Amino acid sequence: MNHSVITSPTEIFKKQYEQIRQQTEKICAPLEPEDTVVQPMVDVSPPKWHIAHTSWFFETFILSPHLTGYQPYHPDYSYLFNSYYNSVGNRVQRNQRSTLTRPPLRDIFTYRQHVDNCMTQLLENLDEDKLQELLPILELGLQHEQQHQELLLTDIKYILSTNPLLPVYEKNDNTPENIVATKATFLEVPGGQYTIGFTGEGFSFDNELGVHEVLLEDFRIMNRLVTNGEYLAFMQDNGYHDFRHWLEEGWAMIQAQNLEAPLYWVQQENNWYRFTLNGLKKIEPNEPVCHVSFYEADAYANWTGKRLLTEFEWEAAAQVYPPQTGNFVESGLYEPQPANPANAGLQQLFGDTWEWTYSAYHPYPNFKKAPGAIGEYNGKFMLNQMVLRGGSCVTPANHIRTTYRNFFHPDKRWQYSGIRLASK
Ligand SMILES: [Fe+2]
Questions:
Q1: Half-sphere exposure of 48 (CA within 13 A, CB side)
Q2: Chain centroid, CA 343 distance in Å
Q3: d(CA 290, CA 298)
Q4: Quick check: 91 and 56 in contact, CB under 8 A?
Q5: Which residues pair with 219 in a beta bridge?
Q6: Ligand 1 centre and the CA of 298: distance in Å?
Q7: How far is the CA of 55 from the centre of ligand 1 (A)?
Q8: How far apart are CA 399 and CA 16, in angstroms?
Q9: Nearest of 228, 348, 351 to residue 290 by alpha carbon
């Protein structure tokens, strides 16, 4: 019996499209309609807005220019669901997204279905040449949707955490038992010339392009992420009250906001707990510390007498010790997991938490901004943010690469961001 199935590149793309679009709806399935409208801080977008905006992306950049006769689904939706593309026109300000109580969620799902139907129509009528021509923007649409899937989980966690009832997003009992500590060691990475940036086949973002050489000194990289237990030792050693560890901006931030622990940590009767998508959980000392700002990551590193890696050191380490897999969103755990003491190599480079680097998010020397609106995707944000590497437990596994550059302002804590140290 012949089980082989002949699939054309168009059919392969159609399958990916369906799978990724359905995944967004799966992420939103446990939510109540009321959960999808609120915006408890400006960085967080209401889930309803994410669901609409990802459809707007396909409508604006693929259907309108490439499906003959396509008219936008609704004349106002571009104003409502454009995120930041000046080339596309005016929009609701980012901090006003929760004012969109209308259109109701059911209309947003109808909009989504309309876009999917039209995308199917477009894909079914594409010949191979046209597909190849459109593939970069088609793939960008899917990668963009995956970025918003991670943001959805990140934002849902923040939204639910601000509700006094501390709602559980999804109950799971997958937390491993009998956790044993993995001793921190430092693995050598030889100095020398390394090629930085994306050189492979397939998709990459423009910010990974502009491949270039960097010269690195010898350094050593911590074999795993910094744990809750290690971070707690910093807190208990007066870490948040000793200015000597802190950058001036970080010190000002923790003073102004009275910070004494990572985001989501709460103390009850001398025990520390943290809010998770699985409810309030006792702090597990061997799990990686998560939801810290760059300032906290740097202060912790200073306290240990070590330092953070640069993004170039991180990428060089990934060349010397190539990561194979990690705890990504597919595990369904939505929390970083302890390292494995049986594993002698470099662990958790992929998944668990994004790793703050001490590298500013700047264009690579050979970076070229794409023409048109798509040039606004990454390039215009290349100032005053820090690079994070490696993906997290809410990143889709097939979305990450060793050359992937994530970026956030140094004070941000709602992302799944953690710490890895470097040393001489
Ligand atoms: Fe977006």
A1: 23
A2: 26
A3: 14
A4: no
A5: 189
A6: 29
A7: 10
A8: 12
A9: 228
Expressed in angstroms and rounded, the spacing between residue 254 Cα and the centre of ligand 1 is: 30
Asked if 103 and 51 count as a contact pair (C-beta separation under 8 A), the reply is: no
List pLDDT tens digits, range 215-242. Answer: 999 999 999 999 999 999 999 999 999 9
CA of 242 to the centre of ligand 1 (A): 39
Residue 137 exposed, middle or buried by CB count within 10 Å (0-12, 13-18, 19+): middle
Highest mean pLDDT range out of 171-175, 375-379, 391-395?
A: 391-395
Lookup: tokens for 294? 């760059």
- Give the CA angle between residues 297, 299, 300 to the nearest 5°: 65
Locate 117 and state its tokens: 């139907």
Cis peptide before 103, with omega less than 30 degrees from 0?
Answer: yes
Q: Cα angle at 153 between 25 and 143, to 5 degrees? A: 70
| Cα-to-centroid distance, 148 and ligand 1 (Å) | 7
CA 103/CA 271 separation, integer angstroms: 44
Q: Considering only CA atoms, which of 354, 291, 282 is closest in space to residue 158?
A: 291
Give residue 41's identity as a one-letter amino acid code.
M
DSSP state of 275: E
Name the residues around ion ligand 1, CB cutoff 5 A. Answer: 83
CA 158 to ligand 1 centroid distance, Å? 18
CA distances from residue 244 to 23, 238, 418 in whole angstroms, order as listed: 46, 11, 21
| Both structure tokens of 157 | 């966690």
Q: CB count, 10 Å around CB of 296?
A: 31
Residues 6+ apart with CB under 8 A from 283: 228, 232, 265, 271, 272, 273, 274
How many A from CA of 331 to the centre of ligand 1? Answer: 25
Centre of ligand 1 from the C-alpha of residue 300, in Å: 32
**CA 319 – ligand 1 centroid, Å:** 30
Instruction: Please say whether the beta carbons of 115 and 64 come within 8 A.
Output: no
Q: What is the pLDDT of residues 257-304, one digit of tens each?
A: 999 999 999 999 999 999 999 999 999 999 999 999 999 999 999 999
Amino acid letter for position 159: I
Residue 213 pairs with which residues in a beta bridge?
195
Helix 9-28 / helix 128-161 crossing angle, nearest 10 deg: 10
